[in-house]
Design goal:
The complex is a heterodimer of chains A (256) and B (68).
Chain A (H helix, E strand, L loop, with lengths): L7 H9 L2 H33 L13 H28 L2 H9 L1 H23 L7 H22 L3 H15 L2 H11 L19 H33 L4 H12 L1
Helix pairs in contact in A: 2-9, 3-4, 3-5, 3-6, 3-7, 3-9, 4-9, 5-6, 6-7, 6-8
Chain B lengths: L8 H6 L4 H40 L10
The chains are: A mainly alpha (256), B mainly alpha (68).
Chain lengths: 256, 68
């Protein structure tokens, strides 16, 4: 009897369901993401803070953009990642998706907090206030609370399976906030400017200004990759501690 | 590409009076990233320590009963 022909995609899909396979292959990826992240952030930050020309209206305070915008972008993409993981977990029961859903929360929460803090510090010299109930600021605060809710929900439900389902539902429902943040600057009168990067148009800034911004956005993504893999690998070991492969892995580590 | 925008290191740190705001943001970002990495390392180490203790207790002839 001929074996069922499997496409490479199907094989990849089945493998992605295996936490062990994921743990086996991702060790070297962490190093690559970590090194790339540090190099990109050093380059982008030095370039942006020292070499980019000052803004003709805001002077040098605009340089906060090189941290504020990447943090804001990451806080939203990490949330979209959580929503996607939630769907994968609820619909296809993919264990690894639930691991990802737990592992990405602390970093996403940090990025929302970093966007809010750097936004406040930028707002003081530019708008004259640390905090305004601006549409984008407020919806980002909601995003922060969603992250906090996901973290608290996970801690409050003792059964892992039930906690995973509850978090997946909250993550999916919360995705509604992302277009609100994204389009807040177009829908309502706000103090925020519209996006610098658009898929269909050239940036509204000179290259000397958006270059470092792009480098830092990539650097933030790389460090997200590093931290996400690190937390996922730890969670996998913790959840599968009783299996033989984890016991062997732990023994090998203890000997080394 | 434009050259270095400041005349001296102190001018760079001062940024025409905006340096405090800008460098504070850099500091906070560094604290957040280092904090995330540090928290992960700490959790890893704690898990390895606790897992080793659980494995020792589970061994046959291991110290299964906590002795006072």
């Amino acid at each position: 009897m001929a074996a069922q022909p499997q496409s490479a995609l199907t094989r990849l899909w089945h493998r992605l369901g295996s936490p062990r396979w994921f743990h086996d292959i991702t060790g070297p990826w962490m190093t690559a993401f970590g090194v790339a992240g540090v190099l990109l952030l050093l380059t982008g930050t030095l370039w942006g803070l020292g070499f980019a020309p000052p803004d003709y209206q805001q002077g040098n305070s605009f340089r906060i953009i090189y941290l504020h915008v990447p943090a804001a972008i990451l806080s939203q993409s990490v949330y979209l990642f959580l929503g996607t993981s939630g769907v994968l977990f609820l619909v296809w029961r993919m264990k690894l998706a639930d691991v990802a859903l737990e592992a990405a929360v602390p970093f996403g929460m940090s990025m929302a907090a970093l966007a809010l803090i750097t936004g406040g510090v930028w707002g003081k010299p530019t708008w004259g206030a640390w905090w305004v109930w601006d549409a984008r600021t407020t919806s980002t605060l909601v995003l922060f609370f969603l992250y906090f809710g996901l973290y608290a929900l996970r801690q409050s439900i003792p059964r892992a399976e039930a906690a995973g389902r509850a978090c997946a539902v909250l993550a999916i429902v919360g995705v509604i906030n992302i277009p609100i943040i994204k389009y807040s600057v177009d829908w309502w009168l706000t103090l925020h400017q519209t996006s610098t990067f658009k898929l269909t148009e050239r940036p509204a800034m000179p290259a000397a200004m958006w270059g470092p911004l792009l480098v830092n956005v990539l650097g933030f993504y790389a460090l997200f990759g590093y931290l996400l893999l690190g937390r996922m690998r730890l969670l996998i070991l913790r959840r599968e501690e009783r299996t033989r492969w984890v016991q062997e892995h732990l023994q090998a580590r203890a000997v080394a | 590409m434009s050259g270095f925008q400041f005349d001296s290191l102190s001018a760079w740190l001062n940024m025409d009076g905006h340096g405090g705001y800008v460098w504070f943001c850099v500091l906070i970002a560094v604290v957040f990233f280092v904090g995330n990495v540090f928290a992960l390392r700490l959790a890893q180490r704690r898990f390895l320590r606790e897992a080793a203790a659980r494995a020792r207790r589970a061994e046959p002839g291991g110290n299964a009963v906590e002795t006072p």
